[in-house]
Amino acid sequence: IDMLYEADNCKSKTEFMEKAIRFYCGYLLQNKPELVDYLAPQLATLTEGIVKGTEQRLSRALFKVAVELGAVSHMLAAVHDIDDDTMIKLRAMCTDEVKRINGIINFEKAVRYQRPD
Known about the structure:
Strand content: under 5%
Helix content: over 70%
Order of helices and strands: HHHH
């Protein structure tokens, strides 16, 4: 137990023993109708943990992207003099484009679009 509980990502030896007992109970219940009653809560807990972890990673990634986008927006606004009408048209064009391309933005295509030639 001393060697394995940390390797199993358990915070304590007690948590490790609880997991081991649950595993053994599942082993004893295999091929018995009671297995469904045992597995349903285990699967729900496992799925909930996966979803929660994914949600946290996505939230952190979106926060970082928003910070970078804010910095880029402020830099562009500082170096370019764009009138309100052009800004409104640009936002509408970008909204339509993002809907059309399903949010997958390609920098090279944007550069080619913006070139006058």
